[in-house]
Design goal:
globular; 2 domains; Spore Coat Polysaccharide Biosynthesis Protein SpsA, Chain A; 289 residues
Length: 289
């Protein structure tokens, strides 16, 4: 019997119909390599689980408490049989057989651990999916047109990190570095993992010859205020973990100036300010400058 080579792991939270569409696209296009689909549901309340069971009755869904994307992904890995892992957001769509070129690349290049495909919006425009080292400078540039232009790489290239929306990795390396850090509830867990992989001497590759579509932020649209706070919480933790002291200080000054006036108007900004000033829970740390 043919062995499973790739475990496709999807962490779902209220993705509903878009998750079903994602699964249908996988079923339609991926034919060349034996794979399994592992869905980890983080306490969805929109009927996602019933909808998936209705359309894919043979597919098992693993339910768990919602402790974040990283924790859900790690739970999926614990069930995975494949030697390769493909983490997919539920709001992605496959438009061709992406597994064959991804597996082929890692088989040909044993020093590559992670591959990120080109990610496109549904109108065909480029979506931010790879970066150089994430720093205070990138905080100012990450959403700028110039930064997006820099990411429009036409050839396969080594990068510092790729996005977790479509993240292909060797399972043995994922386990070697300890998987996703579950202290990141959402955001930055992919950056953190890539940094730890690179510290072990492995390469992160952006492969624009492989692409897929991504709606982006579908599940978090109805809880955007909560996710805005979680983004900054994860950002502060990331800086605390990886960036030098002066960048940690500058980040807090920048974020305070950005949100202080807004905090008088909207509650989510007040929560962000309280988060920034919570030095007891998120102390400044001396890392390598």
């Amino acid at each position: 019997m043919e062995q499973v080579r790739v475990s496709i792991i999807i962490v779902n939270y209220n993705a509903g119909e878009v998750l079903v569409n994602c699964l249908k696209s996988i079923q339609k296009y991926i034919q060349s390599i034996k794979y399994e689909i592992i869905i980890v549901d983080n306490c969805s309340t929109d009927g996602s689980v019933a909808l998936v069971k209705q359309n894919f009755p043979r597919l098992t869904i693993h339910k768990q408490e919602n402790t974040g994307f990283g924790a859900g992904s790690n739970a999926g890995v614990n069930l995975a049989q494949g030697e390769f892992l493909l983490f997919l957001n539920p709001d992605t769509l496959i438009k061709d057989d992406i597994l064959f070129p991804l597996v082929e690349l890692l088989e040909k290049e044993p020093n590559i651990a992670v591959v990120g495909p080109k990610i496109l919006n549904f109108d065909g425009t480029l979506q931010s999916s790879n970066h150089s080292v994430l720093s205070i400078w990138q905080e100012f540039l990450i959403k700028s047109k110039n930064n997006l232009d820099e990411q429009n790489i036409s050839t396969q290239s080594e990068v510092s990190f790729v996005t977790g929306a479509a993240f292909f990795i060797r399972k043995k390396i994922f386990k070697l570095v300890g998987g996703f850090d579950e202290r990141f509830f959402m955001y930055f867990e992919d950056v953190d993992l890539c940094l730890r992989v690179k510290e072990q001497g492995w390469k992160i590759i952006y492969a624009p010859q492989v692409s897929l579509l991504h709606i982006r932020g579908y599940s978090s649209r109805n809880i955007s205020d909560l996710m805005a706070v979680e983004y900054r919480r994860s950002q502060i933790y990331y800086y605390q973990k990886h960036r030098p002291l002066w960048e940690q200080i500058l980040l807090r000054i920048y974020l305070t100036s950005k949100f202080l006036i807004r905090a008088t108007i909207k509650k989510k900004y007040l929560k962000i300010i309280l988060l920034i000033l919570n030095f007891k829970k998120y102390p400044l740390k001396i890392n390598c400058d």
